[in-house]
Amino acid sequence: MKPDETHDPARVSWVESANDPASDFPIQNLPFGRFRRAAAEPWRIGVAIGEQVLDLAAAGLVDHGDMNRLMAAGPAVRRALRSALSLGLRHGSHERSRFAEALVAQAEVELGVPCSIGDYTDFYTGIHHATTVGTLFRPDNPLLPNYKWVPIGYHGRGSSIVASGVDFRRPQGQLKAADADAPVLAPSARLDYELELGVYIGTGNALGEPIAVGEAEAHVFGLGLLNDWSARDVQAWEYQPLGPFLSKSFATTVSPWIVTLDALAPFRAPFERPAGDPAPLPYLDAPSVREQGMFDIVLEVSLQTPAMRDAGRAPERVSVSNFRDAYWAVAQLVAHHTVNGCNLGAGDLLGSGTLSGPAPEQGGSLLELTRGGQQPLALGNGEHRRFLEDGDTVILKAWCERLGARRIGFGECRATVMPAR
Fold this sequence. Notes:
Largest sheet: 8 strands, mixed
Number of domains: 2
Low-confidence stretches: none
Distance between the termini: 48 Å
Number of strands: 26
Radius of gyration: 21 Å
Shape: globular
């Protein structure tokens, strides 16, 4: 989708909070999610506008509350709905009275996982993360030979994906010290976060029918924030030969809003490889990917310790990076996932992998920022962190801004570490 009137930076809304330049949810964004007013109620489809949520069913824009059904309907339906929303929410709209009755404050509702997630795959597209972590364990050969050829991924656990604001317990698992004869079962002492984006599938594909890379984005509904919590000590003992298992499956936190690819149209960027790197194989290459397959999305991690909270100190930013530095584009992840005939369905989630920048201070995990715990991260209040401690809160944020376009954001992806049981 190319920018159109829904992206016009001069367009303002009669919902005044959406016109705040600092708002993540101006009328140019219109991300989708699910909400409910009470725990006993079914989830409803909502769209964020400023500090409010528009109930799509109450506004007469959908006749159901099934987010996955809406996602599966395809890009034409999504774009028509975006147009109707933009027209109805813009200043001077004749739909104002009808839409106003369907608004509810975000602060007054529960925001959940934005759709029913049928399956979850986590990729490893952050080359700076992969290089830094590889250097910690394989100084002479940080990147394995397949990294620049294959979008590496593993099958995650969809059942433990939770919404932003849902706290989780420190996991336990088998740990083995380097000088120990046998492992022990214990709570993880090297708990970490991973700054990622999630790719939400809209229209799926039939089993045995690959999705061509040039058509892949038509199967993507949008993007959201994702924190793939990781128990590094459990991971170190279990990950060979078949990869992560209990070190990842205890919790994955997602933000409540899906920012559609339509909203991201003004923030596209070319897909470029460093000079000398191999070109992708033909099934991962298309002019559309090369010309505008990436997205210019700023990503931020903040940390708030219990001591900060008790002292009334705001969370402290610990790193900033950009999705443009990922080694693989969204369309390439979808094409590779399905090239063997694997079928994807509406609501399936693909994690990007940890998104770090090229500078040491741009690590998307504590594993990188502390060099495997060897160099503790100094915080502004005098505290230090090698890995997460009980009571620590991690907040992920992301936004897009570019001259000639309205800034849009992704909301928050937040959770607090609770003690192990």
